[in-house]
Amino acid sequence: MNVEILKKTEKPETETMILNMGPHHPSTHGVLRVILELDGETIVKATPDIGFLHTGIEKTMENKTYNQVIPLTDRMDYVASLSNNLAYLLAVEKLLDIQAPPKAEFVRVILTELTRIASHLWWVGTHAHDIGAMTVLLYAVREREKLLDIFELVSGQRMMTSYFRIGGLAKDIPEEFEPKVREVLKTFPDKIEDYENLLTKNRIWLNRTVGVGTISAEDAIDLGVSGPVLRACGAEWDIRKSNPYSGYDEFAFDIPTGKNGDVYDRYLVRLEEMRQSLRIVNQALDGIPEGDFVERVPGVVLPPKEEVLSNIEALIFQFKLVVEGLSLHRITQR
Amino acid sequence: MHDLILKKLKERFAESILEVAEFRKEPTIVVRKEYIIRICRFLKDDPEFSFNFLSDLCAVDWPERKPRFEVVYNLYSISKNHRVRLKVRVDDGESVPSVTSVWSTADWHEREAFDMFGIKFEGHPDLRRILMSEDWEGHPLRKDFPLTKEEVMFNYNKDRPPRIMK
Amino acid sequence: MGLEEHLGDGILFTTLEKAVNWARKSSVWPFGFGLACCAIEMICTFASRFDLARFGMEVTRASPRQADLMIVSGRVSTKMAPVVRQLYEQMPEPKWVIAMGACASTGGVFNNYAIVQGVDKIVPVDIYVPGCPPRPEQLIEGIIKLHKKIEKESLKKKREL
Ligand code: SF4
User: Fold this and answer.
1) pTM, to two decimals
2) How many domains does chain A have?
3) pLDDT in tens, A239-298
4) Same domain, A131 and A279
């Protein structure tokens, strides 16, 4: 008797439902809002709404001198501050047509690679936390603190270092820098093993990452995706290899790639990148050359203090640089 | 490579090229905006160039110039590893053809340029504000938009309420 | 063990206010809510090295309905401001707010069109923690200050607010 009803309800007419997720939601780091269209449990459409963290940095930069902008670049991608500094400074240095001295380049490479590790650690930690593995976050933050200690050692700040400056570094690296980095180099590979042990073959982790968020390489390129996400899609492309800067062409390292472009592959690629970063840091640390830590271009870089106190030209340069800032226009016309 | 790009473009779109410049080995080609989709498509599809990656699309405001805005396209080829920069000029109130049909990533970039500068993109599937809220007035990155509306409090003015600047 | 040993079999007298405040301050549940760079330092404070669990605060709640303390960690944009206000209103009384970092306190380095110049323009703030970003120790200091403040609160006043 109920067969008729059953037959009718076999394919029930359904309506999709709109669900608002965010901007405050435990898994939307960096305040993202997604407007979801649901068909039962399945998401049929997701419209992201961004801009909750729009800070107006560009406009603020327009109103500052080239040196004053460096601290702002720290605050753009705040888990990888030094990399942002470097990107900005490379642009300014290209404009000015100056080159940082070899020592500065090596230190830049070491610190940006350590930043990469710190940033990847943050990714692994928070991502694992979001899908239910709290331990990994605690482990990752523990290791990240070690790296932050190094940043603090060289610059005095844990996160917003502003350590790279136009033409080189803000100041020379301290003596304890090398032993500290060596210690990280020695202990860190085991820590990566720890994460692998916790996650790589973990059934829950596999269930929640394999085949999730798959992007094909063509789509990724079309959508302007780069970095580890693109590499996880299988494209073997790394800006450090294709357009080497800061002397990256002198270091031997591999580009890890994934196959399927899902979350699991991104995880594997990032873990492997951490290992490769350690390799680069190792090579760079062995080869830090002697010399000055900044290219002393007059009118661009502050002269050393002794000279300012004894030499009128240096005093004028310092004065003009501090008061007026550096005028790219004047210098490029030189 | 730059010469080759220029040569081929000149052959095919001679009337569209307004200006060519090179600075620090970075070539820039200013083209007429009516041609931008065709040029982009050509640069992307031509196997010699295959500019498959739109690394950035942004705009510049030159308040004293006419036309006032420049839209800048930074193209990159992942397979061939070379770059070129295209620019089109557009005045306030005019619109630029949208390149979303060439690279899907242009979608958000164009929305940002619209949000920040008020440049309209013709043929864009969903042109609305992306960073500022829907009810925001004005376009913040225009040079005539004030950086801030609120006075900073210092010692000398700590006793009076902050002035709202116009 | 512990407290019981010292108490013996006696009775302890205190005021209701003190007992309530003591209970409240000993387990403040923060709202897991991050906005920018300061949020990273806040998570560091919760995690291994600094371990906020020592202050009875390890339970970060994802829902405002279960939280007592909102740590506004980072810059509040004009687009985010109404959301912050709404979340604040969704928190049950008693509730406290810490403005963490220069941005949340005053707008910080971003004196521009997009950032609210101090979160105190939209929600009442109890403690301001300076720094850009504040070190975890600084945040802990702020939290201890908040505990002191809670201890001194009067039940009657809070109700009238
Ligand atoms: S105070 Fe500094 S660290 Fe904190 S959110 Fe603002 S810019 Fe970021």
Assistant:
1) 0.90
2) 3
3) 998 889 888 988 999 999 998 889 999 999 999 999 999 999 999 999 889 888 888 887
4) yes
Looking at the fold, whether A225 and A317 belong to one and the same domain comes out as no
Return d(Cα B74, Cα B61) in angstroms, integer. 17
Residues A161 and A280 in one domain: yes
Q: Which of C73, C103, C110 to mutate to test the pocket of ligand 1 (most atoms within 8 A of CB)?
A: C103
Same structural domain, A236 and A199: yes
Residue A12: pLDDT band (50, 70, 90) is low
List, in order, residues 6 or more apart from B45 with CB less than 8 Å away: none
Q: How confident is the model at residue C11 (pLDDT cuts 50, 70, 90)?
A: confident
Beta bridge partners of A37: A18, A45
DSSP strand pairing (B83-90 vs B69-76): antiparallel
Tell how far the Cα of A152 is from the centroid of ligand 1, in angstroms: 17
Structure-block tokens of residue B73:
């396209």
C116/B110 Cα distance (integer angstroms): 26
Q: Chain A 8-27, CB below 8 Å of chain B: which residues?
A: none
In CATH, the architecture of C29-149 is 3-Layer(aba) Sandwich (3.40)
Average pLDDT, chain C: 86
Q: Do C110 and A142 touch (CB under 8 A)?
A: no
A142 Cα to the center of ligand 1, angstroms? 22
A148 and A269 assigned to the same domain: yes
Residue-number span of the structural domain to which A329 is assigned? 297-334
A109-142: string of b/e by CB count within 10 Å (b at 16+)?
bbbbbbbbbbbbbbbbbbbbbeeebeebbbbbbb
Question: Which residues of A are less than 8 Å from C79 in CB distance?
Answer: 51-52, 54
- Give dist(CA A284, CA A177) in Å, integer: 13
Whether residue A168 is found in the same domain as residue A301: no
A180-223 confidence digits (pLDDT tens): 999 999 999 999 998 889 888 889 999 999 988 899 988 999 99
Q: Which residue type sits at A53?
A: L
CATH of domain B2-136: 3.30.460.80
* Every domain of chain B and the residues it spans: 2-136
Tokens 């975890």 -> residue: C136
Which of C75, C76, C106 for a ligand 1 pocket mutation test, highest count of atoms within 8 Å of Cβ?
C75
**Higher per-residue pLDDT: A24 or B99:** B99
- Global ipTM: 0.87
Neighbouring-strand partners of residue C96: C69
Helix (H) or strand (E) holding B3: helix B2-12
Atom of ligand 1 nearest to the CA of C133: 3
Q: Which of B133, B140, B152 sits opposite C113 (nearest CB)?
A: B140
Which residues sit opposite B71 in a β-bridge?
Answer: B59, B88
Q: Which residues contact C64 (CB under 8 A, 6 or more apart)?
A: C31, C70, C87, C88, C90, C91
Residues of B in contact with A227 (CB under 8 A): none
Q: With H, G, I as helix, E, B as strand and everything else as coil, classify residue A275.
A: helix
Residues C70, C85 contacting (CB under 8 angstroms): no
Contact C112 B152 (CB under 8 A): no
